[in-house]
Structure formats: structure tokens, C-alpha cells
Amino acid sequence: MTHGPHRIECDVIGGWACLQEGCGFVEVAARRAIRKKACTCFIAAGIRRCRTISSHDAASAPAAGALVTPAKSARGRGAVKRLACFACRSFGAARAEMKAVVVHEFGPPESIRVEEFAPPRPGENEVLIDVHAAGVNFPDLLVMGGKYQILPRSPFVPGKECAGVVAAVGRAVTTCKPGDRVLAWMEHGAFAEQAVCVQDNCFVLPEPMSFEEGASFGLVYQTAHFALVERADLRAGEIVLVTGASGGVGLAAVQIAKALGATVAAAVSTPQKAEIAWRNGADHVIDVAVPNLRDGLREQLRKATDGRGADVVIEQVGGDVFDASLRALAWSGRLVVVGFAGGRIPEVKANYLLVKNIAVLGLQISDYRDRHPRKMRRVMAELFDWYDRGSITPLVSEVYPLSEFAAAFAAIASRRAVGKLALRVR
Ligand SMILES: NC(=O)c1ccc[n+]([C@@H]2O[C@H](COP(=O)([O-])OP(=O)(O)OC[C@H]3O[C@@H](n4cnc5c(N)ncnc54)[C@H](OP(=O)(O)O)[C@@H]3O)[C@@H](O)[C@H]2O)c1
């Protein structure tokens, strides 16, 4: 038997312990001597609860997804043949290792490797997923580089969203069951063969949605929806300027703003990105590569909108693009700060807000994820409905094998990527 803070493997004759952290369910052999030995072992490993039953047969472990109940063996009274835990429904016969992107030290993706790592265990309110695809997001770059607002302790597996098949669920889980196709999002852990998330952040996929689409859906569409609706209070008929409009959040914002009845101006840096924006519903395209962006952005937008400017700006580039976008706001306009992909975090003079009757708002989607999970589920239901109707469609422009995750992030960092990139995990 070996045990550590996250994993307990037991081959003590006639007993087993649930490997699920926090479950604590233990079965040990009926014979007194064995029970005593096994219990001592388990208690040393931090497991207190213990039930007395008879021996198991490791070869009879159920397939992932089987519901677990104690069963009498044909070989003897009270014998239990199932290895999976009927207290939390996770499986004792778990794999010892999985392939994952593992960060030991913060740094660029080229310095980080795919290696063997201990698989996660679902808690009672959590879902274990066999990951098929994982979404590539700009914030992952910040996490791996140690520049994000929430940083896990090393070693850790990065990755904020994935799609796959539910392998096991904790005993309090009601939103999905083993075998369901789902998308999930999490603070980190998605770039691996298995990932865990709390049930509130796990969503059963619409029938036609592929794993690559599912892995590219949750984070950017939720971010764009909360920016437009919750923060900016967008009304049908208003004019929305989206910066970084051909990227993940950008394209989602273009599509959602259109679905909500807005007129959309998409700010992009190349003709190829302009083409993507047109194809995804933009009414106007604004060139951010013009020499005098400070005035140039406002001039282009005013020309396109009969002098009105933007009622709402969804801003994710920062720096000069932010400064120019603020100047392009219409009377009573709202600018939502989503990110700083360009690097420079801008500053705002308060008098400018007063003089123009405008507002600058912030959005951090993970706060909504953790504080308002029910609201997020309502929004996800609306997004799935729009997806089913064809009003929004994720553009997954490239899929990389997990082993080539660094190449995917090189495309993001160099601004070559359009829409979403995904990693194929299995
Ligand atoms: N607040 C939140 O909760 C939240 C959630 C998700 C993402 N974000 C942030 O939102 C931003 C966009 O994320 P994303 O996943 O959509 O990224 P993405 O797909 O890589 O898109 C970023 C866009 O920004 C533009 N850009 C300008 N300068 C850039 C640079 N130096 N490097 C890379 N891109 C640059 C690019 O368009 P052009 O070349 O046309 O300028 C690109 O299309 C990021 O800052 C991210 O951290 C925030």
C-alpha cells in the first residue's frame, strides 16, 4: 500500500479504500486480523470512516460509468466484487498516471513539457472528465508565464476549459452522469487526459456540438455575454465596437452582439482578420493598423455610424487601442475592460468620464463563475439555444495534438491565430 496527500492505492489483501479525496470510504476484509491491519493503514493515511466487508477481486472492477452498489459475491457470504466506491461513485481501479502539460516553473510554453502526472480525483460535488479536447485561451499564456491574477502552486496542469466524457461523479452531483458528453471549465487542469471540475461548471453538450467546439465555447462566449449584457447593459439597436474582434472573445462578442440586435463594428489589424469579422456578422470593420490610431479609430467609427460613435466598447487589447476606443464612445457610452492582449495596461483620467458622461467597467469572468453559478447556467442555456438555432457558431480554426500545445500558444502570442485554437487530447 502506498499513500500520499492526493492518492491512496491499496492492495492489502481483502480491502480497498476509495481513492477519491474527501470521500474516506473504506472497505476492509471481514476476518478480524486483516481488518485490523488494513484499518491501521487507512487511518494512517488520513481516512477515518471504515466499513467491514469481505474481499474483492481486482479483475472484477466495473467499467467507468457503471453505477456502484455493494454486491454479494458468488464466492462467499458478504463478499464485495466491485472496486468503485458506492459512497461517492468514483472508481478505486483508477489509472496511476495520465499524460498532461505540467508546469514546474513559470515560463514560456516552450519551456513546459507534456509528461506523466497523477490523475485528479473528484470531490463529492465534482465531476471527473475523460478529456477529448481542450480550449486554448490567451489567459493560459499569462498563467504559464506566472503573470495571471490567480496562480496555482507548482507543479500544476494549466488549461481553463475542456470537453469530453464524464468518467465519474461525486455523490452530490446531479447535473450530469457518467457517460455524458460535456464541456467544463475550471481555474486550471484542462490540458490533461483527465480533468476535474465542480458540477456547476460542467454542462452537457448539445447533440451536434463536437468536442473541439465544446472546448472552445464556455470561456469566450460566457465572457462576451457577461461583458455585453451584465456589464454594459446592451440594448437592441445600439452600436457596439469590439476590439481584437477576430480572436476568441472578440468573435464571440461580435456574434452575441448581433444575436442581441446590435450594430457591430469589428476592430482588427489585418485584411485577413477583417474577412473573418465580415463572415461572422460584423456590420463595419475598423482598421487598427492605421498610422494615427488615436484619431483614426474615432474617425473610422464616426464615418460608419453617421457621427454617433460606440454606445458600447468590448475592449480586450489595452494600450493605444484602449485609448483610441475611449475617445470613440458616444454620449453615455460604456466601455468594458476585458483584457490587455497588447501588453500595456491603460490609465483613465476621471475628468474625461465626467465630461463625456461615459463609464468604464471591468469584467473578470471567473468571479461570476464562482459567485453566481446559477446565473452562468442560465446564460449557458441561452448560448446553447443560440448555438442550436445557428445564431452563434464557434470558429475553431486549428486543432493541435496535446504534445504540440506550445505551437498553439506561439500562434496566439504572435497574433497569427484567428477564432479559437483547440488541443486534441484523445
Ligand atoms: N476578463 C476576463 O474574464 C477574460 C476572459 C477571457 C479572456 N480575457 C482576456 O481577453 C483578451 C482576449 O483573449 P482571447 O482568448 O480572445 O485572445 P485571442 O484569441 O488571442 O485574441 C486576442 C486579440 O487581441 C489582438 N492583439 C493585439 N495585440 C496583441 C498581442 N500583442 N498579442 C496577442 N493578441 C493581440 C489580436 O487581434 P489583432 O491582431 O486584430 O489586434 C487578437 O485577435 C486577453 O487579454 C485575455 O487575457 C479576459
Question: Could you explain the architecture of this structure?
Answer:
The protein is of the alpha/beta class and 426 residues long. It is 28% helix and 23% strand. It contains twelve helices and 20 strands. It has helices at 32-44, 138-144, 211-215, 218-231, 248-259, 271-279, 293-304, 319-327, 350-356, 365-371, 373-389, 405-413; strands at residues 2-3, 8-9, 16-17, 26-28, 51-52, 98-102, 113-117, 126-136, 161-169, 181-185, 194-198, 202-204, 239-242, 263-268, 284-287, 310-315, 329-337, 359-362, 396-401, 420-424. The strands form five sheets. Strands 8, 9, 10, 11, 12, 19 and 20 form a seven-stranded mixed sheet that branches. A six-stranded parallel sheet has the order 15-14-13-16-17-18, with helices on both faces. It has a three-stranded mixed sheet with strand order 3-4-5, covered by helices on one side. Strand 16 (310-315), helix 8 (319-327) and strand 17 (329-337) form a beta-alpha-beta unit. It is globular. It starts with a strand and ends with a strand. NADP nicotinamide-adenine-dinucleotide phosphate binds at residues 137-139, 219-220, 223, 244, 246-250, 268-269, 273, 288, 316-317, 338-343, 363-365, 412, 415, 417.
Classify the secondary structure makeup into a structural class.
alpha/beta
Helix content: 25-40%
Tally of individual helices:
12
CA-atom Rg in angstroms: 25 Å
Spans where pLDDT lies below 50 across 5 or more residues: 1-22, 24-94
Instruction: Let me know the largest β-sheet.
Output: 7 strands, mixed
Mean of pLDDT: 84
State the end-to-end CA separation: 31 Å
The tally of strands reads: 20
How much of the polypeptide forms β-strand, as a percent range?
15-25%
Small-molecule binders = NADP nicotinamide-adenine-dinucleotide phosphate
Please tell me what the overall shape is.
Answer: globular
